[in-house]
Amino acid sequence: MYPVYKSIGVKQQCKEIKVSFPPQHQESQPGLEYIMKPRPISSNPYYCESDKLQGKVAIITGGDSGIGRAVAYAFAKEGADIAISYLCEDRDADETKYVIENLGRRCILIRGDLKEEKMSKVVVEKTIECFGKIDILVNNHGVQFIQNSILDITAEQLDTTFKTNIYSYFYMTKAVLPYLKEGASIINTTSVTAYEGHPLLIDYSATKGAVMTFTRSLSQSLVSKGIRVNGVAPGPIWTPLIVSSFSAEQVETFGNDTPMNRAGQPFEVATSFVFLASDDSSYMSGQILHPNGGTISGS
């Protein structure tokens, strides 16, 4: 049995969100949320749902933790059933499923490595088998590896970063597309680094730039089919990816360089995905939203 994570109200949250975090580091990616201190805030109990996604079925990659988990919770509150694809973080995934089911929605977990194209087909097939349709695809999973110089980025790291962060987005989109009908939505997670770059995340930033351009190009390809494609470019958000990539010392000041002088929490990003998945954004495609703490980025 996993406890339902309870968070405090929005106003109180904003007062208590830390400007600095206790130093911590996890040795392997994509990281484990259940051992983070403090835990990321994934759910807002004061969220006012209005059935924006009632009866919809969503696939969320990397939905076991971090931003993906927060999106899954928000989608469930809006009435969607969820298929979560994740790599290996079983305990985080089980907790996310438990919370979604306690919200009254159905959830399936699909474990596997999306760097392999065949895994995308497995995710789609299992989702169709369970729910009978797919309305929303959220390509969200990713990795990042800190390196002080491009000279330190090995061919193996480059291959892993690109296969995880952009190849798999192609694979998932190709696998799901035959099942999407008019009115469906694809949402890709890019990053503020796609616009500003990052001296320690050269290969990661390059993949996120590719995701941004992929989103814009795909939107033009699918607009005639009535399928909208948009993206979200978060700034620094407190997720397992941070503690599994940055050093303990870097974690202490993570997000302090934003205009808001703090990192964001996953629940502060999730509503961007709800908006793009729902009919509220029916006149938007090829666009990117920027929940990033006030940083001015390119359009």
UniProtKB/TrEMBL annotation:
<dbReference type="InterPro" id="IPR020904">
    <property type="entry name" value="Sc_DH/Rdtase_CS"/>
</dbReference>
<comment type="similarity">
    <text>Belongs to the short-chain dehydrogenases/reductases (SDR) family.</text>
</comment>
<dbReference type="InterPro" id="IPR002347">
    <property type="entry name" value="SDR_fam"/>
</dbReference>
<dbReference type="Pfam" id="PF13561">
    <property type="entry name" value="adh_short_C2"/>
</dbReference>
<keyword id="KW-0560">Oxidoreductase</keyword>
<dbReference type="InterPro" id="IPR036291">
    <property type="entry name" value="NAD(P)-bd_dom_sf"/>
</dbReference>
<protein>
    <submittedName>
        <fullName>SDR family oxidoreductase</fullName>
    </submittedName>
</protein>
